[in-house]
Design goal:
With 261 residues, chain A is of the alpha+beta class. Chain A is built from 5 helices and 12 strands. Chain B has 246 residues and is an alpha+beta fold. Classes of the chains: A alpha+beta (261), B alpha+beta (246).
């Protein structure tokens, strides 16, 4: 059942006490990820798919490809859209209905990690300039929410894209079941998220840490150590030194995370 | 899929075997796993042929908004949802008439088997997510949901088992695939059944059914549901015994 | 004014007492319809229309025809859509706003009766394969709700379709007021609905019976005794024998109902 | 309908007769039937030329949500809706800016004639459904609604009668048809009027009106509404006497 | 902070007392407008724009032009749409969310003033008959609400239209930043609004008068004294003489208002 | 704007001057006016280059619906909205994912500077309307909102100043224009900063940032925000002194 606010206030006190002794509840180091598994090809109906488990957090990304028109300001490029759904299936805290503010932010930050790194070679997805292009939809279902959705969703998204086959197009329509090759992927952006609780900064917050956090910082990094997106979350501020330190840790830890792909 | 005239010549059952090698009264492979979503009070994952379905149960819990409460029993709510990538053409997230109807008939298929009177004023939420869909996703959803409700410890008078029977190419068959459902003469008759009481809690039908085929179809449906029920019980037993062994 | 739940609990007891003596409140037999009238051509703005009165239940169906594109999986067929609105005009129990679950089920079951019987010859509604077809909209307004909307709506829908003229098309557009003939109709599906109260099964429930029912069963049947759709409703189960008995009654009674067309 | 130049040569009044044979100050055929929706507390059906309009009244009843209640009087609500098939191009069900505006002005056209203070904290719902629309459906709706309110026994200071006056082809006319409204120089001036008090509760106007035509138009509107009022009273009387005779 | 209903009941009594002595709170005559300023060209992103201040009421209208298809019943004309938003920014009484009934009425009455006067020469906005026309969007943001939005919005709308340049079209698309001339404007409709409080009728109600009014009447008038739209608002009735008198005043006062353009 | 290959040859900084003549560490012209919306409890109008932004604050006020109240402090709400005519392609009024996200991060950028505990159970509404948008509208919005909150008398621990830093054509620059943001190698790094405490309350970034550029960028951001803060204080002082003089 959904925990009350009071529960989290008390929980935070005990978390803080442990953290001040350098302890996380599952004995991880402050800059350590939980166990991660990535399984590609979990769906036959999607053009590409992947399931990611990060601790008990479980998400499934599916890629669908259709044909559409390009945006007026990039007539020679395919289009891409990420949509993550906080399914009420996955947590007592998620409500059915219209996407919440949190779901929108999650979708947009995962989207930016992929978009700004130019992970997909969108120029190769142009079929007829200004008129017809491939449209790539990355939909992410949250199955079990146990903290740190941002990193799990970005990992699932990029894994699903790597798994994606590009369907054949004939007479301006997708030919069901026929493919011309793999979706052209240039980069592997990874997101690393830190939670700030008191003055402690923790990589990969689990559910309790995520619920007790006062701020968070998500950094997307490519395999070339290029930072392609950042997003501060929560209301507590960060100092310049804290930001710099998280960036340095993320550059290091993103490599380990990427090795799961 | 475009249905040309050639389809009408397709043999849906040849030498007792269907297109996927099954016998006419044989279910697809069904795997049921209990307790797959640790945040939920009860959950199940069902792979049924190409269908992949998660069900999660939350509750009994506070029923909001208040005016929807029932002072005498728990309110059962059911939400069937398809992942956007669960079928060949992407589904846009949000409202669909089909999902609304399936949610309603599925809820009613389960309601009478639950002892809702034990939890007045509360709500019990069932969420069913179709990750991959083939024919029979509503039956897979109800089957998963009933197991998840048992896993959540909701007292019940019997598990609800669901499956579809129908006809393709003139043959009465159990548990059609999408390809069989697309037969020009296809009948699709999904049912939900409580083996303990021998009663039907869901009956729907599309197609062109002759009266003379009814008795055979409904008998086959009973048989199919009984087989499904067996798998549900085994899955629950497995989790229960697993827990005992740990 | 809208009746309270308590009212219906008490009402149900008295209904059950009467039913156990074989009595319905209006003295009908258990397998008897109320008085039915069908009036076609009640609208000048619709391409076809009909008003059906079943007892005091009153519904109006109107058919509008436009041109559109076919569905990708049936490029050589016109399209058809049924939409029934539970107007708050017709009952103290219907709320204004977004279609309720009940309205959606009603629309879809009436739709299936027409669709699955192939009542409309959709292949004749193809104008140019894969590109241009007639789109048939059957909209049903509930004017007064006195029970058993399913049968009244299906009857009004098929009557309105039989009344429908097919508009002329020129330059891909409908020519207002010019017609090429009748809408091609192949079949006359009829829906028969039974309510279960206690162990009693009643054809054509009136308002009180509909509100007290624990389950219902709707069966759509063509003039050739082909069953083209079925839908159990409500939470109480049916036995196999009950289902079979209702099917047999429906085959018989649907003929009488169809004679009103 | 496409308006070509030929329309400007069309004679909207020829030898004192309009396109449909009426005189300039003549209403279309109006038939009012009271008590046509037995579920409603009050109802009416109005056929007005080609307009077919049902009105139903429910209330006074509980006003929900609570924060919309008025502690001093009943809240009047009014919903004008067009059936999808009521005009030549199908209307998609749901929200339209036009219906929202008509619902608002119609509600305000009726409100001051009702003794809402008799029913504090309650709501009175008026639903108007346009089954078939020609010019003047809002006036037909208000006319039907006022009769339905009387049929529901809501105390009132006077019936509200509505009609439109206007101009087509240079002629001042009463109660335009759609064809007349489509005249290139058309004016459409719908009003609601309470004959008992001689006051206007709705005035709207579209078109290009010269000041000099105003007095004649508004006089004609009063005359039209008085004729409509006569028909409203007759219809109510007919139902009332019918009941006495039974 | 939003005023309570009780506040307005009391306020109305004091207003009425003053009005019966011929006094308005700001000493205006009953048929006198507040100070008005019109500033055109307040936006670089809009094709035309204007800010209107009427007393403390402040509104900004922006005109955007795109290409679209004509309506079937006027294939040789461009299209026009007015949308006024009651921004919650501008008043404690406006709520965020879906447009309220009042916002819809405001939009539609301002729209009618422009449309029915044929202020825009829509025939000159046809690019290819039946297929391609200019679409004119007049969007009005309410920045500060101090009464009488109708007149301020109509004035801002027509001023913005007069300020509008018509973009060049090439290959069926707008060419950003290139123009073919001014938007063709034929007329200058002006709206004059009267509030009725007790038996007093006041031109240009300020916030207090608008909130205390029992009825209102808005009259749109062109530079040729043609009345092109009227709308009674509020529930209190008007007599014939009151209507006539307001029309006569509006014809006179609209000229002064128009002189601000 | 269509980006051709020529853009890559465009010189974004030439002889120390940018396309609009600014130095690399120079802000666009910023004008802040306080108290421009007399209906609001606090308000500000900010012209920042081509951005034109109104901010209004209403509250502390009753927080409805009730279940959203916080018994310990005021709830801060923030709505960022773009006028339909604020960009070159008209924006349809209503929901947009971009506005939802900007509203959220902007609210969080302000929240910790406000002493919300002084007003338990209430709500404070901030409305930001973008009348004309260029690059940097969210920073202009936060800057305007913080001034409007001060104007409304909400107690605060410090003003929040926002601006963006980034890169175009290989140069690290302060406060980009839209043209600079469209550079093929553009980085956009908007921040909100509290000069009083030296802390960042908003950090976002899009583009391809090398670690080596980070320190210079963030230093420049601090410098930019300090300049913005100076303008905010001057604007408030001007209103305050203006009032004293009157």
């Amino acid at each position: 059942m959904s925990k009350t606010n009071l529960y989290w206030v008390i929980k935070k006190d005990s978390l803080l006490a442990d953290l001040s002794h350098g302890k996380r509840s599952d004995k991880r180091k402050f800059d350590e990820y939980r166990k991660i598994t990535v399984e590609k090809g979990v769906s036959d109906t999607a053009e590409g798919s992947a399931m990611v488990q990060m601790g008990k957090t479980k998400v499934i990304a599916g890629v669908k490809i259709s044909v559409g028109t390009p945006y007026p300001d990039s007539p020679d490029k395919g289009t891409m859209m990420v949509n993550a759904e906080l399914l009420p299936l996955s947590s007592p805290d998620f409500e059915p209905g219209f996407p919440s503010e949190d779901a929108v932010e999650l979708s947009r930050v995962v989207d930016r990690g992929i978009r700004e790194s130019h992970a997909i070679d969108l120029e190769k997805l142009c079929i007829r300039e200004g008129e017809l292009v491939y449209s790539v939809f990355v939909d992410i279902d949250i199955i079990n929410y146990d903290g740190n959705l941002f990193d799990a969703c970005e990992l699932a998204g990029i894994a699903a894209l790597e798994d994606t086959k590009l369907p054949k197009v004939k007479d301006e329509k997708i030919v069901e079941g026929e493919f011309t090759g793999k979706l052209p992927i240039n980069h592997q952006p990874i997101e690393c998220t830190f939670a700030k609780i008191g003055e402690h900064i923790l990589l990969d917050p689990d559910l309790e840490e995520d619920n007790c956090k006062e701020a968070a910082f998500t950094i997307a990094i490519t395999e070339k150590d290029v930072i392609c997106a950042m997003q501060k979350r929560g209301s507590k501020p960060f100092t310049k030194d804290e930001l710099t330190s998280m960036i340095d840790t993320a550059i290091k830890e993103s490599k380990k995370l990427r090795s799961n792909l | 899929m475009i249905l040309g005239k050639k389809n009408q010549e397709k043999k849906y059952v040849d030498k007792g075997k269907r297109l996927d090698g099954r016998k006419t009264d044989e279910l697809r492979q069904i795997d049921i796993e209990v307790g797959v979503i640790d945040q939920a009070d009860g959950s199940a994952f069902v792979q049924w042929g190409k269908n992949k379905v998660y069900a999660a149960v939350y509750g009994p819990k506070e029923c909001l908004p208040r005016h929807t409460q029932n002072p005498l029993k728990a309110v059962l709510r059911y939400k069937y949802n398809m992942a956007p990538f669960s079928v060949s053409d992407r589904i846009r997230p949000g409202y669909s008439r089909r999902s609304v109807e399936i949610s309603k008939v599925s809820r009613l298929a389960l309601e009478k088997t639950l002892v809702l009177e034990d939890f007045p004023k509360t709500a019990i939420d069932v969420f069913v997510e179709i990750i991959q869909a083939d024919a029979g996703s509503r039956a897979a959803g109800i089957t998963a949901a009933s197991v998840a409700l048992a896993d959540a410890g909701i007292p019940m008078t019997g598990l609800v088992s669901a499956c579809a029977v129908g006809k393709a190419g003139g043959h009465i068959i159990l548990d059609m695939t999408k390809e069989e459902e697309d037969a020009p003469d296809a009948i699709d008759l999904p049912v939900a059944y409580v083996p303990e009481t021998g009663e039907f809690t869901l009956v729907q039908m599309d197609g062109e059914l002759q009266r003379k085929d009814w008795d055979e179809l409904i008998e086959l449906a009973v048989k199919g549901c009984e087989m499904v029920g067996e798998k549900q019980r085994l899955a629950l037993k497995k989790k229960y015994e697993g827990e005992v062994n740990e």
